[in-house]
Amino acid sequence: MTSSNSSSSSQHPHRLRKAIIPVAGLGTRVLPASKAIPKEMLPVVDKPVIQHVVEEAAAAGFTEIILVTRSAKSAIEDHFDVHYELENELSRKHKQDLLESVQSTLPEGVNISSVRQAKALGLGHAVLCAAPLVGDEDFAVILPDMLIPDLPGQGADLTQMVAAYRQHGCGQIMVEAVAEDKVERYGIVDCAGQSPEPGNCANIVNMVEKPKPADAPSNLSINGRYILPARVMELLVKTEAGAGGEIQLTDAMASLIEEGGQLMAYTMRSKSYDCGNKAGYLEANLVYGLAHPETKDSLRALLKSLA
Prior knowledge:
Strand content: 15-25%
Mean pLDDT: 90
Low-confidence stretches: 6-13
Largest sheet: 9 strands, mixed
CATH class: Alpha Beta
Helix content: 25-40%
Order of helices and strands: EEEEHEHHHEHHEEHEEEEEHHEEHH
Strand order of the largest sheet: 1-6-5-2-7-13-9-14-11
CATH topology: Spore Coat Polysaccharide Biosynthesis Protein SpsA, Chain A
Number of helices: 11
CATH superfamily: Spore Coat Polysaccharide Biosynthesis Protein SpsA, Chain A
Number of strands: 15
Number of domains: 1
Structural class: alpha/beta
Radius of gyration: 20 Å
């Protein structure tokens, strides 16, 4: 499937314009809601999670979105396609606001393509599935479970991380400080004792997957946003399956560092909400609902009455 709101795109081989979004997961943490509906299509206020993520990528300057998908996920592709019957009906009834909302699910100037991941063999394998569409370009990986709202007046963290990539000329991994007793839930970066302030970055010397608190080199957790050099895709081809028979993106990034490549940790300023689990999904709806002009007042009143 290829969908487009742009007639053409420039072909500069090292221009940062491609973002891979893996959407092939089963969504078991939000069952039964995801039994028949892709978890990425669950709404946060009035948009599915995946639309929030695509809009985030577009705002950061990405014009080529590559969905790594599987069977039973066609609703995601359909959401970004044209729905002639619906648009004609809304136009006939002069519902202009609703018409514009369904016509703008795909941001202007953005193309969406998709590739299939036949077997669930890990995040690294999902990224590798997109290799034919990425070519020899640097690229981003954006996990759709994580929503990161903009900070008022400060813009988006992904946009800031793209600026850091251009400034330093190397890959960037978004990280978020977590409580010391929760580091064993995440991949943790080692910045040689440094802990960059929010909005800043530092060199990564190592990455540790789900360390015990006593062994963790920091409390900076990898948070589902990556900007990676093309070399990582080459390393993924050579990366052997690890635990659970899966090919891990973290292993390829670690190999890049071992051979002398540079990756930096960008500490986010905002806060992430994991829509891949029930609590995080509810939190995201509250945060986004309190920022939405149509829902903020009634939701604030409800929360006040419950408190």
